[in-house]
User: Fold these one by one.
Assistant:
Number 1:
Amino acid sequence: MEKYDAIIIGFGKGGKTLAPFFAKQGLKVAMIEESKQMYGGTCINIGCIPSKSLEYYAKKSKQQKFQTYEEQDRFFQESIGKKDALTAKLRTKNYDNLNTQKNIKIYNGHASFVSKNLIEIDSENGRVTERIQGDKIFINTGALPLIPSNICGIKESKCIYTSKTIMELKKLPKTLVIIGAGYIGLEFASIFSDFGSKVTLFEASNTFLSREDEDISKAIYDIFIKKGINIIMNAKTQSIEDNRTVCGRSTGGAKVTYTNSQKESITIQADAILVAVGRSPNVCSLGLENAGVKVTKPKNYIQVNEKLETTTRNIWALGDVNGGPQHTYISLDDYRIIRDQLTLTDGSTAKKQQPITTANRRYVPYTVYMDPELSRVGLTEKEAISSGYKIKIFKKPTMSVPRAHQLEELDGLLKVIIDTQTNLILGAALYCVYSSEVINIIRLAMVTNQEYTVLRDSIYTHPTMAEMLNDLLSD
Ligand SMILES: Cc1cc2nc3c(=O)[nH]c(=O)nc-3n(C[C@H](O)[C@H](O)[C@H](O)COP(=O)(O)OP(=O)(O)OC[C@H]3O[C@@H](n4cnc5c(N)ncnc54)[C@H](O)[C@@H]3O)c2cc1C
Ligand SMILES: NC(=O)c1ccc[n+]([C@@H]2O[C@H](COP(=O)([O-])OP(=O)(O)OC[C@H]3O[C@@H](n4cnc5c(N)ncnc54)[C@H](O)[C@@H]3O)[C@@H](O)[C@H]2O)c1
């Protein structure tokens, strides 16, 4: 039986970064990935990169102002093809990155624990099994889409899609219902609306984007309405029934029945239905109980401490599976947490800084990639007030920025919240083109405790969206 210093289960962002780090230290590493289509993990194959690629082409499609569905559909199909070419290229690159390193062996198969240091790998549908042993084991198995069990017909319907399968569509749906107005729901509503689908967005709660301030969520709501997206709040999906076959031919699509705020039961038609109600940890058939690795209840995330150690010594969990924020850059930061503690323990590198842990991780930013993008960091205005801060708000419309005029991207709202006692930035919400870039400048000022005046008085190249900080932060 092969023995390894480190076994990594799952080719996610954290794991694929950890593998070469160990290999460079001369350790023998096994990387186990169950799907050949997933080398590189969710982000590059079925998550961030393909969805952002489609967002890019959807925007181009909108700019083309196609007159017919046939033109829109042709452009959509070409976009899916280009997205597939991009993910294939990145998958190969990711595989080669690890496969070319002499200390790393990649196994293709489903991994499960036999005991705390023994892993079984099932490949070719369980026809071949192999066991390997590891001193240290890292679980990086990601998350899977949640499919609600309380919607009648959801399992049987052929019109149900997840974020993965909707990006494999061969035809642009004329009508699309999206269940869930979270990250995925909002991004895909924007994408498919820009490609030309008629989108209806169902949100079960009574507040649109409740984690944002009302002025920001209202600005987003208004722009979605302007795009022609139908938003139904308090929508409780009751049933999904595929349309019947007529004279031996399927009419396609399905009837979606939901209740609204007034408890009325309404039925609409949809060519496709995207379920986007969250993602749950992928602990399927991992045999965690054989290794004494505990999960949290009721959501089944792998239980970890601030160093990402599980309840079993020498087993760690990183990425979506451990219940932290579900972003690629958090999986990468999880890698840093493990790197820091194992570098320190092994004494191979002298470290001067305090090791990174989840306890000292601050100001996790995020971007929702719709058109325009919403990027956020730190506290909202309502959170700052309820935390007892005395605050000053700087707020301006996106159209106050010269670059926005040049780009013809005038929609949106910019907002920064300042602590008046310290002049430090408490938070920011940028709803504008390229906000995904500018938010990182604001975060850097926050983590390095810069007063907001540093950003206000900084020299920015022109014309850029970043130079908004000169004017936005001026009284
Ligand atoms: C549509 C969509 C868009 C997104 N957009 C963004 C975005 O713009 N920005 C952002 O930061 N985040 C985004 N995310 C979230 C981001 O993709 C995830 O947070 C991130 O990819 C999680 O990475 P991970 O390291 O946890 O593992 P993953 O990348 O999920 O990798 C886990 C791997 O483990 C494998 N695996 C699972 N079980 C086993 C087993 N038992 N044996 C062997 N292999 C196994 C899986 O096949 C998979 O390849 C998006 C997600 C989705 C779905
Ligand atoms: N840009 C990014 O960083 C990015 C993009 C996509 C996904 N992600 C990650 O993927 C994860 C999953 O995204 P998601 O959008 O699926 O989940 P989410 O948790 O962000 O949003 C789910 C939404 O669905 C609603 N909902 C739940 N049940 C419902 C029901 N039965 N009917 C109608 N609405 C219902 C919830 O109220 C919520 O608004 C996120 O946590 C995010 O971290 C990140």
Note: The two ends are 69 Å apart (CA to CA).
Number 2:
Amino acid sequence: NVPNGYNICNRMPVEEGFATKAIHAGQDPLQWSHWEVVPPIVTSTTYRQDGPGVTRGYDYGRSGNPTRNILETCLASLENGKYALTFASGLGATTVVTSLLNAGDHIISGDDIYGGTNRFFQKCLCRQSNTITFVDMLDISNVTSNIKSNTKMVWLETPTNPLLKVIDIQGVVQAVKEKNPEIIVVVDNTFLTSYFQKPLNLGADIVLYSVTKYINGHSDVIMGAIITNRNDLRERLAFFQNAMGITPSPIDCFLVNRSIKTLKIRMQQHMENGLAVARFLESHSCVDKNNILYNLPSHPQHEIALKQASGHSGMVSFYLKGDSNKFLKALKIFTLAESLGGYESLAELPSVMTHASVPEEDRKKLGINDQLIRLSVGLETKEDLLADLDQALKASL
Ligand SMILES: C=C(NCc1c(COP(=O)(O)O)cnc(C)c1O)C(=O)O
């Protein structure tokens, strides 16, 4: 049910069978003692042993948990990946992945990334004598020209948060691996999920998620995840997951495992509502029309998006002509709040909220100013969302 007028001619096709995998991968009832169709929540933190060190697969909740395992199996299956690991948060996943770096290693990151990730890179990672270079990855030569002998990782989001720049995953991977095949390419796929985009298929070594967002999609769990096909990386990351203790709770794993069952239909509705909002804003007199940041045909990287993704989510950013505070306070259905990807529509001011920790000069260079509004378009009735935006836009004048 792709919305009319949405260019699907040369779009990356949506994967057949995604919903079936989301419902059945890792869920076999025969694995449980009572053949439960819905996986049980195993909360026990410790397991009886037949003898010292002689276990039946589990010894301690941080080191392994049956409810976590079936979620990880399902996440890997949806990515067409071999291994998935889950963590206490998206930034927890970021912490574990960057633990692959040794002191003195260099990482190249996209310049437009989540503010908390930027903060972690600049305030935490740099304390471990890792160096970081932020580059505009729209020009892939910015990546390759910054590769040094100690460059060990390249990190990107696409679409980026909050400017929705679309980065050519395959182009970056090929250019980086040509220079140094040992460099690990990490793609944060939070904004599209594996339903719309599969970075592993495009050559990425690791795909990372704030599961908190679309994958859980109900704004009631904080969680992170990574998926990889590389045995060597999986072994090291699984060691860090346990040794660093950045693991999710079994109850959160149960909630996310349940949310995943509707991921496909939620992403389709987010796209339908997001496209309607983007088109509405594109023609609105209170909006700077040249700056609707969404994957409309007018988007500067629309062709790349068509090539590597089968759709776009509900993320829409735009520059407001009027007063941002008046606009945000006038909204009635959109809630002024941080985060994204839930069934509820949210609106925020990145310059003051999610990206306040990005150094001001960097925000200015990127264009993350007080006129930039970021929307997470939810699953409400489309007409209600448009009416809410219209009245709030008029109130901003
Ligand atoms: C909270 C917000 N972002 C979290 C986030 C994170 C961090 O995820 P947490 O689960 O919040 O730790 C990682 N990657 C991306 C692309 C993200 O957007 C936000 O943008 O409102």
Note: Residues 89-91, 114, 116-117, 157, 161, 188, 190, 210, 212, 222, 224, 338-340, 354 surround P1T (CB under 6 Å).
